[in-house]
From TrEMBL:
Protein's GO biological process: phosphorelay signal transduction system
Entry GO MF terms: DNA binding
UniProt protein name: Response regulatory domain-containing protein
Lineage, broadest ranks: Bacteria, Bacillati, Bacillota, Bacilli, Bacillales
Pfam families listed in its UniProt record: Response_reg
UniProt organism field: Paenibacillus alvei (Bacillus alvei)
Length: 255
């Protein structure tokens, strides 16, 4: 699960490449998963809504929108990452506005990289972040030849389509085709993603019912009525499937 995001997630958007690289190295030192956005307000906001990072570090003067304007939009979207703004603007008016908006920290370029390091470490150690560390895991998949990240909580099931493609069914009712293998998806997820059959993955939080297969003795059917799913659980995989679930999760009806 090292590729899954069970760690703190940080989005970085800096105009200065060397500063961005230095902040990235700090984040990696603390074993933080790093995302990058272009230094534009629209890209930062888009990445925040897509990935819900725990921490956002951005330049004050982004393209088209400044960081305070972006921060207001993020709050309006009911997303609340810790946010650090870096800038060479020392105006007391800007500083006051930043902290009145609820910015976690406002750091001047002249303060140096050590000041940013200290701020990141403080946020990591806060009680709020300790609670969020285990909140979500993201799965990296390839879709249309591009890397895409999906929260495992949004994955209802995965079904093999061809030797090279799999269908991912999402909790919002949509589905996407990926060339990432069943094994590749499983290796990034937590125990909630299980493979009851070599051609399927099921999120155990979406299992409504488990019944004997009427056609194959020893096999079972995992059902979800909302998404009209009937996924086979083979006799060969039954014991391991139930054992994995019982080790990590209590689900009524599983014996």
């Amino acid at each position: 699960m090292e590729e899954g995001w069970l760690r703190l997630k940080c989005l970085i958007a800096c105009i200065d490449y060397e500063l961005e690289e230095a902040i990235t190295n700090i984040a990696k030192k603390y074993d933080i998963c790093v995302l990058h956005a272009r230094p534009s307000g629209s890209d930062v906001f888009g990445k925040v809504t897509q990935f819900n990072p725990d921490l956002v570090i951005m330049d004050l003067y982004l393209k088209k929108e400044n960081a305070l304007q972006v921060f207001k939009k993020i709050k309006k979207a009911n997303i609340n990452p810790e946010t650090i703004i870096v800038s060479n603007e020392a105006s007391s008016t800007v500083l006051l506005q930043a902290f009145n908006e609820g910015i976690s920290d406002y750091i001047l370029y002249s303060s140096g990289i050590k000041r940013i390091d200290n701020s990141i470490r403080r946020i990591i150690c806060s009680d709020k972040k300790e609670v969020k560390l285990n909140s979500e895991i993201f799965i990296k998949i390839i879709c249309n030849y591009k890397n895409t990240f999906i929260s495992e909580n949004r994955i209802v099931a995965v079904e093999k389509q061809t030797n090279r493609t799999n269908l991912i069914i999402l909790s919002n009712g949509n589905s996407i085709i990926t060339s990432t293998s069943i094994e590749g998806i499983l290796s990034q997820g937590s125990y909630i993603l299980q493979s009851p059959h070599r051609s399927y993955i099921i999120n155990i939080n979406f299992i409504d019912l488990i019944t004997p297969d009427p056609h194959i003795k020893g096999n079972y059917i995992l059902e979800n009525q909302t998404y009209n799913l009937r996924i086979p659980l083979t006799k060969k995989r039954y014991s391991g499937f139930i054992r994995n679930i019982n080790t990590n999760f209590r689900m009524e009806g599983f014996v």
